[in-house]
Design a protein that fits this description.
- The chain is of the alpha+beta class.
- The protein folds into two domains: about 1-80, SP0830-like domains (Alpha-Beta Plaits, 2-Layer Sandwich); about 85-160, Alpha-Beta Plaits, CATH 3.30.70.
- The chain is about 35% helix and about 25% strand.
- It has helices at about 20-30, 50-65, 75-85, 105-115, 145-150, 160-170, and strands at about 1-5, 30-35, 40-45, 70-75, 95-100, 120-125, 130-135, 155-160.
- Helix 3 runs antiparallel to helix 6 (about 160-170).
- The radius of gyration is 16 Å and the shape is globular.
């Protein structure tokens, strides 16, 4: 099965993970057709294992190799394609289109509830374990929802721009 590993917090905040080394690490762990996309912790690979069982293995490998507490979500490529295609908001040049991947529907629902009263131009909608987020360009980190995501450390979240997901899918 073709899968995508989404690493949280790669090449930001002092966490440096060279993509060539990450690719080599997964190839050495006998994953097939390994490819990285951009320098933000997106890895495509083939596996016969259940994606949920691959994530803890990758977290251990990456943590040992690069010296940080890696948080990784592994999804079938087909699920990433479904999520990207389901983006519910209109696309405008002055808006960023994000998908926030979480550790499950409870986390997504709790975050969506906490973001119920957002200002105009800042919209969030939950769909299973993901949140779709539309926010004005230039205000991602200053928006109430962006600040909320920055504070939530107990749950796993990792955010990807819809353009990044398109590049992952194109490379898949």
């Amino acid at each position: 099965m073709r899968c995508v590993a989404l690493l949280r917090g790669v090449n930001v905040g002092g966490v440096k993970v060279p993509m060539a080394e990450l690719r080599a690490l997964l190839e050495g762990a006998e994953f097939g057709a390994v490819a990285t996309v951009l320098a933000s912790g997106n890895v495509l690979f083939d596996t016969d294992d259940d994606p949920a069982s691959v994530a803890p293995r990758l977290e251990q490998l990456v943590g040992e190799r690069f010296g940080y507490s890696a948080r990784i979500l592994v999804l079938p490529l087909a699920e990433v394609e479904r999520v990207a295609a389901a983006y519910p908001f209109d696309r405008f040049d002055d808006q960023h289109a994000y998908v926030v991947f979480t550790d499950g529907p409870r986390t997504a629902s709790a975050l969506a509830s906490a973001a119920a009263d957002l200002p105009p131009g800042d919209e969030v909608r939950a769909d299973g374990a993901v949140l779709y987020w539309s926010v004005a360009k230039g205000s991602t980190l200053d928006s109430p929802f962006g600040k909320l995501l920055g504070k939530r450390r107990a749950e796993f979240t990792t955010t990807r721009n819809l353009r990044t997901l398109a590049k992952i899918l194109a490379a898949g």
